[in-house]
Amino acid sequence: HVDAGRLQLVDDLPIAVGARPGNYQILITVYRAATSRVIGAEKLTDLAITRPRAPLDPAALRATTRLDRTIGAVRVIGAEVPTRASPGDTIPVALYLQILTKPSAPVAIALQFAERAFPFLGPLTTRAETNATLAREVEAGDIVRQNFDLRLPADARGEAIARAVIAGEMVELGTVRVKEIDRQTEIPAITR
């Protein structure tokens, strides 16, 4: 909370592990808290993110799930998957990749939401999917955070699996518990 007429300065601006090198702008945006309506925005400065001199340590990631799976030119090292959701929600998922060798072509990544027809029984069926492409400007040693927004089906239920498909290989990222929807099963009496 900041009183009107006061400006509160931030001492440091953390840059996420895996942030892509490039030129960015830091903006300050003022908005009305009650309505989230933007009142104004001002550019504060330019920011250049460069490649680190030494490769980043995968242990520095704040990923909720640690993974270690090599697929072609990349190694899947972690993911952030929410553990709970409701049917119809859009869930944010982050996938952390370490680039082992510079890819010669873009790498396609699919994020899937899969569930079983019956709890704990039967094969997994893909219910939702979103896609991304790993850019070719990555270099060997880079750690990349690929963000996804995945919309769950309105009839999703029970436990489901978030998984990534990279170069045709599947990696399970985590389990999402989908909240059951309260459903009315009684039919009201028809009156004349």
Could you characterize the architecture of this molecule?
It is a single chain. This protein is mainly β and 192 residues long. It is built from no helices and eleven strands. It starts with 21 loop residues before the first strand and ends in a 14-residue tail after the last strand.
Question: How are the SSEs ordered, and which strands pair?
Answer:
Layout: E1 22-32, E2 37-49, E3 65-71, E4 74-80, E5 84-85, E6 90-99, E7 107-118, E8 121-134, E9 143-151, E10 158-166, E11 169-178
**In DSSP terms, counting alpha (H) and pi (I) runs of 4 or more, how many helices?**
0
Rg (CA only): 22 Å
Beta-strand level of the residues, as a percent range? over 45%
* Separation, N- and C-terminal Cα atoms: 59 Å
| Tally of DSSP β-strands | 11
pLDDT averaged residue by residue: 81
Helix fraction bin:
under 10%
What structural category characterises the helix and strand content? mainly beta
Strand neighbour order, sheet with most strands: 5-11-10-7-8
Shape: flat
Low-confidence stretches: none
Main sheet overview: 5 strands, mixed
**Order of SSEs, N→C?**
EEEEEEEEEEE
